[in-house]
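Deliverable D5.2: sample structural annotation.
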Amino acid sequence: MRSAATVVAWLAECGVTAMRLGMGSQLRCVLLMVTGLAASPIAALAAAWTLDAGTGQAFLIGTASSSDHIFNASRNIQSTPRYDKFELTGLIEYGATNWLTLMLLPQLQHIDIASPTDAQRTGVGYTEFGGRARLYEANSWVFSVQTTVRVPGTTASANPAAIGYTDTQVDVRGLLGRTFTVGAWPAFFDMQVAQRFRGGGAPDEFRADFTLGIRPSPNWLFLSQSFNVISEGAGTWGFPSYDYFKFQLSAVYQVTPAVGLQLGGFTAYTGRNALQENGVVLGAWFKF
């Protein structure tokens, strides 16, 4: 009963907002519970280490995910119109100096929401740019800070398939990394703690990403990653508070010293007012 009452109260609040703001806002409000507010797997590939001056690396990552369930306000699973999303994201990094790495992340996106919503969008997603500065490195440890600006590819907030992707964002994070061995295998750990400032009425977010990488042979790298997002309260215009937590496993095969191929999968295993999302990851890594 508590779960149902919470959901009904939230929808009632949406209705009040809708009467004030019009039918377009009503649709927007109802769809907030199925918005694809994604923790980006590619963002965590920008680890705490910086590149040597004059060197670079690039990642091209495709993610395909779908969901027909959400975590409601009481963290219980309930059905929702099917939500399918495909994103093709690039990450280009270049060592401006030995301690400063510049970053550019372009993105293409397709989102499809099934009946009765019947909405879709195809086009440019976020374009993100900024840099990472190394502040400390010694005894297998490295600490860096990173700031990026995320510019949306659309401002069509009336389209339900664009909800959550129309606001300009600023991401500020601290990154801590360490290299070590597991037996005879080289390994590393990367932790990123971020504050993401959002516009357009959406609440700001606290983010924490964790990566454990183990290389059992020169040709194979196995990654275990956790992506965690907690909104800092509710926003305006009907945006509720939310949180979601994703887990991803993937493997990278080193085709040549400069080219690697990645394959993996992820799931949103718990959350609140968020999609229960499952997906696959396919990527290519390049060094130059």
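Annotation notes: The CA atoms of residues 80 and 146 lie 36 Å apart. Residues 2-35+43-287 form a domain with the Porin fold (CATH 2.40.160.40).
The annotation will be released with the project's public dataset once the embargo ends.
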